[in-house]
Structures are given as C-alpha cells and as structure tokens.
Design goal:
Elements: H1 3-14, E1 23-27, E2 41-46, E3 51-55, H2 61-67, H3 70-73, H4 79-83, H5 94-118, E4 139-143, H6 150-154, E5 159-163, E6 171-173, E7 176-179, E8 190-194, H7 196-199, H8 203-208, E9 215-219, H9 228-231, E10 237-243, H10 246-255, E11 263-269
Parallel strand pairs: 4-5, 4-8, 5-7, 8-9, 9-10
Antiparallel strand pairs: 1-2, 2-3, 6-7, 10-11
Length: 280
C-alpha cells in the first residue's frame, strides 16, 4: 500500500455512512503570479465550505489547468470520487497528472471536512521549520531546496544535505551540499521535507531512506490531509496552512496576493492528534 492509497482508503472509512460534500469550485491564481510565491497553489472548494490546497507549478500544471476543461467538469462532483483520482500512478499521462492534482486537492478538502466535523483545529506553529531544532552535531536532511530556511539550519552548526530533483542545483555550497541521491538521507538524524513529495508520489521512497532519523518534519501549505498515513510512516510533525477565513483566502488567491492574513501555519505532532473515529 502507498501513502496515496492509504489516505484515500482512510477517507472512505471515516466518511462511510455520512454525507459527502460535492465540489463547488476550483480556485486558481492568475497566470502572472506563477513566478511568485503567491501563485504556487490552487484551492479546491467543497459545498460545505472546506478548502483543499495543492501545489500547481509541477510540469506547468497551472497553465494546463487554466486551459483545461477539468475545473468546469468537476463542479458538482462527489469529493470522495474525485479524491480517488489521487491514487493515479506517477508515470501516467499529462491528463492523468492533472486529475491526480485535483484528486490530491480533494483529499485535502475532504480531510478538512472530517476535521471540522470532529471540532478539531491543529496548533499554531512556533517556528518555520516544524520544531526540528537543529543543533551542532546534527546531520539534517532537507528534501526540496527551502532557500529561506537554509540559514536556520546552518547557523546552528548542523551539517545539511539537500535532496533535489533538479540537477541544476546539485553541488557543494557554503554550509551545505545539494545532491540528487535520496540515499544520502540515510545518514541524517533529522529530516525536513517539502509537502510536494505527497503530490508527486515520491513520499514513500523518500521516507524509506529516513528510517534512522529520530525526527522527520513534513511542511508546506498543501500538507492538509489526514495525518495518520504519515505518522504511520515515521513522520514526527506535519505542518501546513489552516484556513480561517474562506472568502478572504479565496479572494487573495485568485488575485495572486498573499493569503497569510486568512490562514495560520500549523505544526501537528502525533501526540496532538486525537485520531478520527472510523466507520465501517
């Protein structure tokens, strides 16, 4: 079983016998915002008001979504039905890649529905690196190049190894190195990863290299799914964005403006998660 299949299976179990919301709309940032941070994510809205965020800059997805019929055809669709499309294999065609992205957004939106029904809201993050607390003597692995976070790790005297897919970034830099070899994570005692590995279906492979890490933190706005499949795979903390003002968030996203005033960053540890009562 993969992370994607486990997540969808859990959503099926915990919503069994309950009303399933339908897709109300897909909200995209303007094309001109694609080069900036405010244009990196879409939001899928359900008819109960839940929003699910997904990264849309992989393989030119934003442009392709804006030109495709998918945003119109999914309106009114059962959210669980769309969520099942997240399980599509990574090697599928471009059309399937679009549907997989929409499926991931649906998983996040339906997860928000479940958590809202539970009356649960995750705790606010106290820092931007998920409490990974780098120390001298640590070997920190970073999956995805978080440029703004590099100094927070290296300034503490920790050794830093970054895993990247883009060969243009590979090499040795001041205080850290970037490699394409994920097996380099096997020597790390702490790991900080971008949530993009959930969308591109590399999460299982990456986490398989992190078995020696005592702390694994996965962060990013699109880390909004039920956390159980990640905790079961050894992730210590899941950090994402918790939307507090739906209308304000949607308006800002569609304008290509910052939506930080309409959401807060959370850091959810396994000990803080009560779990979802499962049906069926």
């Amino acid at each position: 079983m993969t992370f994607a299949s486990d997540l969808v299976a859990q959503l099926e179990r915990v919503t069994a016998g309950q009303p399933i919301p339908c897709v109300r709309a897909l909200h995209l940032p303007p094309a001109e915002a694609a080069a900036a941070k405010n244009g990196e994510f879409c939001a899928l809205e359900l008819d109960d008001g839940a929003l699910g965020i997904s990264y849309v800059l992989l393989g030119g997805l934003l442009t392709r979504l804006a030109a495709a019929d998918d945003p119109q055809t999914i309106v009114g669709m059962d959210a669980l039905q769309l969520a099942r499309e997240f399980v599509a294999p990574a090697a599928d065609s471009g059309d399937r890649e679009l549907r997989r992205t929409l499926g991931f957004a649906a998983c996040n939106a339906l997860s928000r529905t479940v958590m809202t029904r539970m009356g649960f809201a995750p705790p606010r993050a106290t820092d931007s690196i998920g409490g990974i607390d780098p120390q001298a003597g640590d070997h920190v692995g970073m999956v995805g190049l978080f440029s703004p976070l590099l100094k927070q790790v290296t300034a503490a005297g920790a050794r830093l190894t970054v895993i990247e897919l883009n060969p243009d970034y590979a090499g040795h830099y001041d205080g850290y190195r970037v490699t394409l070899d994920a097996s380099a994570l096997e020597g790390c005692n702490k790991v900080l990863s971008t949530s993009t590995i959930l969308l591109n279906h590399t999460v299982d492979d990456m986490l398989a290299h992190c078995r020696r890490a005592g702390r694994i933190v996965l962060i990013g706005p699109s880390a909004g799914c039920l956390p159980d499949p990640l905790f079961a795979r050894g992730v210590s903390v899941v950090g994402g964005s918790w939307i507090t003002d739906r209308a304000g968030f949607v308006d800002a996203l569609r304008r290509g403006e910052s939506w930080s005033a309409f959401a807060y960053k959370f850091a959810l540890a396994a000990a803080d998660w009560p779990g979802v009562p499962e049906n069926g």
